[in-house]
Fold these 4 entries.
Entry 1:
Amino acid sequence: MKNLLILGILVFAACLGSSCQDVTIGFLQTEDAGYNPDTMVVKKELDTTPPQLEEVDNPLYYELLAENLEYYTPELLISWGILPTQIIEVGAGEDYQRAQWGTPWVSNPIEGVDGTTQIYVSIKDIKTTTGNAEKMWEYLKVYGDGTFEVPLEHDIPIGRYLISLNFKNEGYSKDVNDCFTIIVK
């Protein structure tokens, strides 16, 4: 019994001693990293055609009247600000609202990156065969969740740009190559 106790203590000490190695803290996994969708189209020329105003029937007004005419009277609905007609904008250019608000071009965040926080992301490389990578470097931003942003006003040449990222945290650094495409047209 005494020998068994000594053997147990030696095994425990051996396990304890072998676990005291220089181990890198945390983890970083990027094997499944990707974007959905993995392409963003950025326009140089915006369609900012202003909308036309058009008066149309307000469907909510007529739905409430049809639901219960005894309770929902026209006077009650009008007092609530629900009018029989409404004015809507029609025929606006595809980029009218974006131009009005100065909204930048923004991608979805990257998916499939996991690790010990804080994870830092940076642009590793920008490749292009038809554009100007230096100009894209000048305007392109990447945020902590991998979201890309290109400002509305830019002078990036027309082309296809392939972006690679680098993710790092304490003790690890991994690249995700050619993970996103920006098409400037």
Note: The chain is about 25% helix and 30% strand.
Entry 2:
Amino acid sequence: MRKYSNLKSFDILKAEADSRISVHLKPLDLMSHWRRIGILSDFVAYFYGFSFIPNATATPEAMRSSEIVNSISTVFNELLENAAKYSYNDKADIDLELAYRTHCFEMVVINYTNDKSLQTYEVNLKEIFESENLDELYIQKLELNENDPHHSGIGLVMILKDYPIEMEVIVENQGDVSKVTSRVIYFTD
């Protein structure tokens, strides 16, 4: 087992969730129509947005312009894209666990990948979680991406530097396939 993490708030995860959703997908569900990732991300953000916006102001317009709703959608979208992109085939399982607690929103995405995809992903994870300056790393990755469009890691750097989150990624080898568990805690206060 290997872990990449900036997660420090383990105690918050001990509290019982006020609300919980579980979803089971296949990468094919997402890769055949990439817009589905955005639709699912927006649904999750809007569904839980009512927990973050007072009822009196929870109009459709307020939800669309809510910073927290848009941020949750962006962060969740990045997790889903990575799960679909790094799954070992289009029929591999992707499991989503979402939990709302009073001061945070937890997103867990579990997918299965092969050694080839995992190597690329782990190089990026190591670089990101060992970086002392995510702003600088982001600029470096943007410049690299300009010359090599297949280089990845920009999305994870962006969510870690721009949003109130902590994240951990756990990789567990299971023979020819590895299980990747990505956990993000989004702080709502």
Note: The radius of gyration is 16 Å.
Entry 3:
Amino acid sequence: MLKKQAPGETILKVGGMLLLFLGVLLAFGSGNNLSLVMKGSSDSAVVEYLNQNGMTYSQLVASNVMVLVAGVIYLAAGVVGVKQAGKVENAGLCVGMGGLLIAEVVAEVIVTMIFGDFDPASVIRMLMFPAIYMMGAVLNWQAKKARR
């Protein structure tokens, strides 16, 4: 029986596809709130939205920027993961993207803590897809190192 060249291929592809899906939802889903940001803080619709959600205008802007950035990072990581999953020679790129995903989650947690709406369970939920991705990337990285 032939040993698989890229042991993390399947996990990385699945993680990449999940990140692509989530990235699309985040990047394009933020468009609704982004339209509120573009109206400005004095618009009546914006004021009503802020009052309903107990937010300030700066919190609205920060949350929209974070969601948009997260969406772009997830899309990029998803593309890299799906395209590079079977290539152990590019495992370093996938591990780097996994690190970027985790850094984005940490940044999001910090922003959430600053605005006082921190929920430890949400950190676990936010790390699920990056963890799957990173597991596949690390398996490929280990296979790359074993080849040397």
Note: The radius of gyration is 18 Å.
Entry 4:
Amino acid sequence: MSNNIIKYAKKIPTNKIPTSVPGLGAVIDSKEVFDAFKELLKTQKEIEAIRAEKEVYLAEIEAKYKTYKYLFDKVFEERDKSLNKFFDVIDQGIATNNVDMILAGMQNVTSIVQSSPLAQAKEMFVNTLQNGRKIEL
């Protein structure tokens, strides 16, 4: 029987044997499309993760900015009040011709101007954290 198969196989013209299987190209193309789609989904997830991470970083930056702004506003507000108070003392000393009052006002203004507002802000921030208080923004 195997001799018959070989005999008949030799009779088949070689130009009639298909060189490709019909539909195989479509299957291969479908797999490539599917793989590309999986890659697209993976990339979209990565992009969303990066966007979420960006939002977290931006929120942290904004919170730090608000904290520092609040501290600096408070420190400079306190300095402004103190300076104005001592300038009022100097003005009163000038108005009453009181040299001691003028000198006291000038010494206090000088001591405020010589101190660093950044060091005051740091001290205020550290004290707030050490006392377990939260800074409301």
Note: DSSP finds four helices and no strands in the chain.
